[in-house]
Amino acid sequence: MGSDLFEISVNLIKMIIIFVMMVQLVPLLVWVERRGSAFIQNRLGPNRIGPLGLTQLLADAVKFIFKEEFIPEKTKKFIFYAAPVVSLIPAALAFGAIPLSMPINIEAFTMFGESYGPYRFAFQSFELGIGIVFVLGISSLGPYAMLMAGWASNNKYSLLGALRACAQSISYELALGLSIVGVLLLYGTFDFSEMIAAQQGPLNFMWFGKEVTLGFLPNWGIFYQPLGAIIFLTAVFAETNRTPFDLPEAEAELVAGYHTEYSGLKMNMFYIGEYGHMMAASALMAVFYFGGYDIPFVTAEDVNAGVTWFGQAIDPLLTTVASWAPFVGDSLAEALGFSANKAAIGTAFVFHIAMFAKILFFLWVFVWVRWTIPRFRYDQLMDLGWKTMLPWALFNTIITAIVIFIMRTNWS
Amino acid sequence: MNSLAPIIALTIFVVLFGTALLFLVSLVGPKPKNSDAKNSTYECGIDVQTTGHSKISVRYYLTAILFILFDIEIIFMYPWAIAYGDFIKEGQGLYMLGAMGVFLLIFIIGLVWEIKSKALEWD
Fold it and tell me: Is B89 on the interface with A (CB under 8 A)?
């Protein structure tokens, strides 16, 4: 029972940590967006508060909390308040289903006189065998929050923005869903962890039934699915309502789109939802096409050996310092001492940094594109989604299926 | 149930988090001083001309219907894509390719018909 409780509590804490990590990244991303836009447009951007304007985000958060609570007349109050909360759910659930690092295998150990069995903690809020289908299904719940906000605001700009957002999201979801079929054909699994495991090592593929290895390239999906990756990235921009597809918020036409009537922290919650969606999309991009938490040319054993070496090097120092502390010195030294379990955690941490570097790179791509490419017109947007992206995604699926059939069949 | 429990737990946590934020603001923020102009729906400064629940273009409805049709067809491809590699290993690859080819042909005919019938024109 005690061990079950331990496992459940660790999983709950992990879940909350991943959610808080997502929420905490949002102000940082707003800062990156503002500084990045300034950098691209040759301006300064926020630079007054703190070094490089970094504490600007703290000031913003405080300002949002102390804003007046206000809703306009003739709104549908319950839906109006529920919409920002609902907008958080898909982002949090989708981000939680993606593995951010390799699973940690904890060997059996004793703590406070009780022994705890071996555990396996996945570095994600929940492990699902059908991860991809779950993430697609959950992230397509995003338009509900926008529709709720647009309808409840009783404002024509909000309603138009919500309808545009919804129509655009569902149109590009077709291309998004089809571009993933290529990835599924390649790896034959719905599970993110298996997909990442298949992308480790050097580039390795079947050439007319024979195995070929190219040692100088990592075994990443981008080399098999370049067209699929481009379609996926473009569709994701439309799904998250980012420029060049930010028609729902086209300020020249619709004031601010579906959150016109929202102010203060309520509006900020829509931002958390949008940036959370972007983070989930970046993580998916990394998992599908860039090897997830894989570091090219470095295996888990290498990282584990490096972490072990580092841990053993600083182990005497730590225990010496800890043993100087009065009363708790010996037990503290024991707790700080290096063990195989700590090596496993350190290895997972190193891979977590690799995954986050990839996620942050794609988040920067979102900012980069936003300040580089102008906005589409609405009919151009829908034409691009239905008449260009969908046929190309179909083409990608057919070509992938045929090539996989020719290459993997044993012709001899 | 075992795999569903963490999803429900996270959903409850997120809803509590969002609700707490909403209540926090109404607790610490200044009390609103209302006036007719402030309470009215935002319409770029002029008096409110139309209600927010006016008629909307039928195009959105059409797009949604078409989306449902095509999305279901795409979801049908997922199990096929998963099983495809195993069928190739067993030497059944050509059969699976042909079966999905027929399905995709219907898909493509539907898409072409939809574009030709101008269901996707926005004016």
Answer: yes
Least Cα separation, residue A70 to chain B (angstroms): 7
- The interface predicted TM-score (ipTM) is 0.85
Place of tokens 């059944």: B92
From chain A, the residues in CB contact with B118 under 8 A are none
Q: Which tokens go with A290?
A: 């860039």
Q: How many beta-carbon contacts under 8 Å exist across A and B?
A: 195
Report CA torsion sign: B106, B108, B114, B117: negative
A159 close to B (CB below 8 A) = yes
Distances (CA, A) of A16 to A39, A41, A125, A131: 34, 37, 8, 19
Domain edges within chain B? 5-116
Reported as a single tens digit per residue, the pLDDT across B47-89 is: 777 776 777 778 888 888 888 888 888 888 888 888 888 888 8
Q: What is the pLDDT of residues A32-67, one digit of tens each?
A: 888 888 888 888 877 777 787 788 878 887 888 887
A187-241 tens-digit pLDDT: 888 888 888 888 887 777 777 777 777 777 888 888 888 898 999 998 888 888 7
Nearest to B120 among A88, A153, A382 (CB): A382
Q: What is the pTM of this model?
A: 0.86
Q: Please name the residues in contact with A281: beta carbons below 8 A apart, sequence gap of 6 or more.
A: A139, A236, A239, A240, A362
Long-range contacts of B58-66 (CB under 8 A, 24+ apart): B59/A167, B59/B122, B60/A163, B60/A166, B60/A167, B62/B119, B63/A167, B63/A170, B63/A171, B63/A382, B63/B120, B64/A166, B64/A167, B64/A170, B66/B114, B66/B119, B66/B120
CATH code for the structural domain at B5-116:
1.20.58.1610
**Cα B114 to Cα B110: distance, rounded to the nearest angstrom:** 6
164-223 in A: which are within 8 Å (CB) of B?
A: 166-167, 170-171, 173-174, 177-178, 181, 184-185, 188-190
